[in-house]
């Protein structure tokens, strides 16, 4: 559950240390980490989504100001059908965006031109989501360190299945630094640099209209009074 304290964690401010690289591929059990394909959908599951062209690109960011991606997923004819956008909340490119960016880095997939949920952020956990942050598309630095980095669906690798697509977001070569700020009010770590791999491939079994939730619970802070510090990532909630 997102607390009010986590929502106010927005500012990033300086010893960079690396996080080990993980391969840019989907692990064998990734689909099993998701809830059933149509659980929580508020409508029928027979929607016929258009077939897509595979998409794979890698991006390297060396400063927070570089952290911006804008691209498109295309159908078989080459027409743009979905928009990919990733950013920090403070890059110049999103200053006038109607999308409410949050986290320390966030990605969205939406229908081009859409201004309202869920069409503007198809990675949300529920078709009735009313806040943009209600997805695993946003990343925090404390999710990318130690055991948390490999925690299923809330670490460096996130998998989403929707609209006949399998989407993977993977962060690697991560550079962090300690901010020196009070973790009860701000982030303990600053996200300074990383590589982002975005992989989208056809998957006829993915019939949700939105991504939906993971079967794993979001890791909670070790200390409830310090949500910007370390998380409890040593105990996992296994899929049932």
Distance between the termini: 20 Å
Biggest beta sheet attributes: 5 strands, antiparallel
What portion of residues is helical?
under 10%
User: pLDDT under 50 segments (min length 5)?
Assistant: 1-25, 42-46
Shape verdict: globular
Query: Strand fraction band?
Result: 25-35%
Order of helices and strands: HEEEEEEEEE
Rg result: 17 Å
* Average pLDDT figure: 83
Structural class: mainly beta
Brief write-up:
With 240 residues, the chain is an all-beta fold.
Detailed description of the structure:
This protein is mostly beta strands and 240 residues long. The protein has one helix at residues 4-7, and strands spanning 17-19, 55-61, 68-74, 80-87, 105-110, 138-139, 157-162, 165-178, 189-202. The strands form two sheets. Strands 1, 2, 7, 8 and 9 form a five-stranded antiparallel β-sheet that branches. A four-stranded antiparallel β-sheet has the order 3-4-5-6, with no helix packed on it. Residues 1-25 and 42-46 have low confidence and may be disordered.
What's the helix and strand layout?
Layout: H1 4-7, E1 17-19, E2 55-61, E3 68-74, E4 80-87, E5 105-110, E6 138-139, E7 157-162, E8 165-178, E9 189-202
Antiparallel strand pairs: 1-8, 2-9, 3-4, 4-5, 5-6, 7-8, 8-9
